[in-house]
Amino acid sequence: MTTDNEREWPAVGFESVDWQASSEPGVSRRAALKARGPYDAAIPPLIAGLQIPALDSETVTGAEDAVIELARFDSEVGAIAAPFSAILLRSESAASSEIEHLTASAKSIALAELGRKAGGNSRLIVGNVRAMEAAIEMAEELDVATIISMQSALLRNDQPEHTGAWRNQAVWIGGGYANSPHSAAFVPPRHERLAELMDDLVEFARRTDLPVIAQIAIAHAQFETIHPFPDGNGRTGRALIQAMLHRLGVTRQVTVPVSAGLLRDTSAYFASLTDYRAGNVVPIIRAVTDASLEAVVSGRKLVVDLTAIRARWERDATPRAGSAGRRLLDVLQRQPVIDANTVGAALGVSERNAQNGLDRLVGDGILHQIGSASRMRVYEAREVLAALDAFAARAKRARGA
């Protein structure tokens, strides 16, 4: 039941927009007739100066707990001398991509990062890693250029024509016809409104006088409502969550995989965005709160698993201290698929010394060669890949399963 307080946030308005139907080949006459006439496009409210409505005590307490747990996790993991920042960032990127039905194994993603042959989804997920990196690197300067850069990092290798600026055409979400927004579940605002709306959103996101989780959740929901790009809006909007967590000082050292928490119940997540457009901010605040708390639990489990793997490696590895083979153990946790060229660059050693280190770890059972090539060999740390795949499986598991 919606309370009076929950109605205090302005709902999205709508305007009738003329539509010029295209005469694409292969479009049936029936479909062409349904794609004629005006459609309703959203008019999102300007929010920069708004105050967040009074929230019920359960929502407030949960959001405050989420901030405490996120900061505690960041402090705990940041103090560990292991490359968990890179691992968690990759895990967040993979989970955010999976919300968009872009799925790939940890091995396939690692191969794509290495520039080796991998599936198209893996390349897109690597693009999402770059977008997350851009979001965090530019969090302090959060502005429209930062957001455009996030989306450019996401799509520049696969869809460069869709990067570098706000969209200049209509987009629509859910339903609709292939050649028109008619019957879509939601049609974001006309592109002529985007500059004002995005300037307003950035002003809201840069405020420092609002409850953190509520501010981040509303900024994310407003971004998804505006849908400023031709593609990549969902993933860019979740990168914005990470940028704001860093900018507001909640996380400073690691990327907490909040998208993995959202992935646990995508139906509720998408429904909360619909509720936001109707003027109810509580569901999206609760969705981000729950996702943050679940992300900390899942993230801790991943850190425990990887720490245990590293302890076994230290016990079983035969290379002497300071050698390429021993130093390679650090590299393998953040890059579990690797070749001699990458090892050499990472450790500052010759490719021959890098290969010697790889061979020693193969002999120790820590690494395994992928395939049987005699040149340009690639190796995998199977235990790390298994831990990352287990993390992904936990993220997809429905609540209560």
UniProtKB/TrEMBL annotation:
Q: Which SUPFAM superfamilies match?
A: Fic-like
Keywords, alphabetical: ATP-binding, Nucleotide-binding
Q: Boundaries of each Fido domain copy?
A: 142-290
Active-site residue list = H227
User: From what superkingdom does this record's organism come?
Assistant: Bacteria
What Pfam family is a match, any one? Answer: Fic
- Molecular function GO labels: ATP binding
Q: Where does ATP bind?
A: D231, G232, N233, G234, R235, T236, G237, R238
Q: Does the keyword Nucleotide-binding apply?
A: yes
Q: Could you tell me which PANTHER family the record lists for this protein?
A: FIDO DOMAIN-CONTAINING PROTEIN (PTHR13504:SF38), FIDO DOMAIN-CONTAINING PROTEIN DDB_G0283145 (PTHR13504)
- Protein name, UniProt field: Cell filamentation protein Fic
Give the taxonomic lineage as stored in the record. Bacteria, Bacillati, Actinomycetota, Actinomycetes, Micrococcales
